[in-house]
Amino acid sequence: MQWRSLVLGLLLLRLGLQALLALLPALAPGLCLRRRFPFPFPPPPAALGPPAAGSSHWGSLLRRGGGGGEAGGDEYERRYSGAFPPQLRARLRDAARGMFVFGYDSYMQHAFPRDELDPLHCRGRGPDRHDPSNLNINDVLGNYSLTLIDALDTLAVMGNSSEFQKAVKLVIDTVSFDKDSTVQVFEATIRVLGSLLSAHIIITDTKQPFGDMTIKDYDNELLHMAHDLAVRLLPAFENTKTGIPYPRVNLKKGVPPDSNNETCTAGAGSLLVEFGILSRLLGDSTFEWVARRAVKALWSLRSNNTGLLGNVVNIQTGHWVGKQSGLGAGSDSFYEYLLKSYILFGEKEDLEMFNDAYRNIQSHLRRGREACNEGEGDPPLYVNVNMFTGQLMNTWIDSLQAFFPGLQVLIGDVEDAICLHAFYYAIWKRYGALPERYNWQLQAPDVPFYPLRPELVESTYLLYQATKNPFYLHVGMDILQSLEKYTKAKCGYATLHHVVEKTKEDRMESFFLSETCKYLYLLFDEENPLHKSGNKYMFTTEGHIVSVDERFRNSLWQDILPGEEDSAERIKPNELKAVNFSSNCNRVPDERRYLLPLKSNYMRQIDQMVGLI
């Protein structure tokens, strides 16, 4: 009875506050109290609001540079509008570089040649040989110095030629894939294969935009290593009735006898970029062929009613085991690679699949008002639905979905990207991190850990490149400060076990160095050769840079898939623009450059929806 009385009292208190706000609109101008998503309990106490400009050690620079806006006016405009001082950008760039250096040096000192760094105990981590069922570890760690390999192109992007050359030689001299390790095909592809290919492209680039990254007497060793790894992954594509690969393979023995016949859509359908690059560098269609066959097999299984795909499928029967259709874990990079494969290879079929998928996503997953920056109603949000009916399946979203605004930037849907990004940024402001799953109805984390993921930083960087709006520099500053405050450990940066309690786990995943630090650094490094050299680059789903050039748009074979006519249209080199390259972005109009990308009343609405205010 006491508990019921307490809840009733809190509900009455909230109703009273809402009535007060309705009577005093001046206290909350533009606040929208109508919601599509009802909250049955009062929101939990607000944890982290946006820090005042003067509360950080960079606040004095903001005040001197005028970045904080004029006194008076809207609080969002005061904090985010106006120019961002170049001195502050330089300091933030150096801070992002320092974050990478501390994590990288700690790994090299305490963990190499093992796969990952345990930042709390300052030691290395490899596969869990005692518990093969520990997939959280064994899917990723293959006993091949994962963190060193994954970080190679970040060293180049930051201009550290001496360490890049040293690291490449170390990989060539010490890493072997002839290991009795069972790894996930997807993770080995995006983290290891992708990084080897990226570093090889950087080394062999005749223009050398990042400085002298050449290796003396280099004989394509990284390309040969990538080939060796890909050959060891090929058994996953054999003996499957659908052409969809097994999720795991032993690098020495092939597919394990007890292998699971179920795989996720993203894991099976996000191999085409790396496998396609390898095929086109080698002149061997095998790798692109198997990856493209898997994409087509998944695409053929989409719902006839909605056009949506599920998130888990049986590779032998083609039956959907997981019927959830969303943009987060299990699905995310499938859509990303449909578009990026088109950007890189110019196969119009890839773009047609992406356009169909995007239309179906808009029709069935998107909720909220039609326009981001005008009209009434809830802000746009993409939810998880049943692939066959389009009906809502749950009320959570996951942190991986924060990549989607960046993907929307690549297709020019910048306005919608602005709204979705603002929603994830509001969650970050509340907790100083993104919980792995966040329940938008309960305004609370469902899965409260944060493993240093890069997706919000990635979208922030791409939105800044598209809009040049200093708002996104403020976002990056908030993220950088939170990482330093809550995740820095004795030897590197640690996963947050609980975003509310700020407890840590003893793990620094390799993508922290390959993606999170890289995107933060590039956000603040306006003069980086990646932005200024005139070359066009694309980021893989692991954040590895690959050049967009003619050699990847010209295959040396006639047919990609057997039995098909050689009529697949390919775009010509001069028809393709690398849409994440700053000079080619579809930007928000110049007159909005120093205004908030999202009107303050809508920003306030989102902050209220996540319980921030």
UniProtKB/TrEMBL annotation:
<feature type="binding site">
    <location>
        <position position="541"/>
    </location>
    <ligand>
        <name>Ca(2+)</name>
    </ligand>
</feature>
<dbReference type="GO" id="GO:0004571">
    <property type="term" value="F:mannosyl-oligosaccharide 1,2-alpha-mannosidase activity"/>
</dbReference>
<keyword id="KW-1133">Transmembrane helix</keyword>
<dbReference type="Pfam" id="PF01532">
    <property type="entry name" value="Glyco_hydro_47"/>
</dbReference>
<protein>
    <recommendedName>
        <fullName>alpha-1,2-Mannosidase</fullName>
        <ecNumber>3.2.1.-</ecNumber>
    </recommendedName>
</protein>
<keyword id="KW-0256">Endoplasmic reticulum</keyword>
<feature type="active site" description="Proton donor">
    <location>
        <position position="436"/>
    </location>
</feature>
<feature type="signal peptide">
    <location>
        <begin position="1"/>
        <end position="22"/>
    </location>
</feature>
<dbReference type="GO" id="GO:1904154">
    <property type="term" value="P:positive regulation of retrograde protein transport, ER to cytosol"/>
</dbReference>
<dbReference type="InterPro" id="IPR036026">
    <property type="entry name" value="Seven-hairpin_glycosidases"/>
</dbReference>
<keyword id="KW-0812">Transmembrane</keyword>
<comment type="similarity">
    <text>Belongs to the glycosyl hydrolase 47 family.</text>
</comment>
<keyword id="KW-0326">Glycosidase</keyword>
<dbReference type="GO" id="GO:0005789">
    <property type="term" value="C:endoplasmic reticulum membrane"/>
</dbReference>
<dbReference type="GO" id="GO:0006986">
    <property type="term" value="P:response to unfolded protein"/>
</dbReference>
<keyword id="KW-0834">Unfolded protein response</keyword>
<dbReference type="InterPro" id="IPR001382">
    <property type="entry name" value="Glyco_hydro_47"/>
</dbReference>
<keyword id="KW-0378">Hydrolase</keyword>
<dbReference type="InterPro" id="IPR044674">
    <property type="entry name" value="EDEM1/2/3"/>
</dbReference>
<keyword id="KW-0106">Calcium</keyword>
<feature type="active site" description="Proton donor">
    <location>
        <position position="187"/>
    </location>
</feature>
<comment type="function">
    <text>Extracts misfolded glycoproteins, but not glycoproteins undergoing productive folding, from the calnexin cycle. It is directly involved in endoplasmic reticulum-associated degradation (ERAD) and targets misfolded glycoproteins for degradation in an N-glycan-independent manner, probably by forming a complex with SEL1L. It has low mannosidase activity, catalyzing mannose trimming from Man8GlcNAc2 to Man7GlcNAc2.</text>
</comment>
<keyword id="KW-0325">Glycoprotein</keyword>
<feature type="active site">
    <location>
        <position position="455"/>
    </location>
</feature>
<dbReference type="InterPro" id="IPR012341">
    <property type="entry name" value="6hp_glycosidase-like_sf"/>
</dbReference>
<keyword id="KW-0735">Signal-anchor</keyword>
<keyword id="KW-0732">Signal</keyword>
<feature type="active site">
    <location>
        <position position="332"/>
    </location>
</feature>
<keyword id="KW-0472">Membrane</keyword>
<keyword id="KW-0479">Metal-binding</keyword>
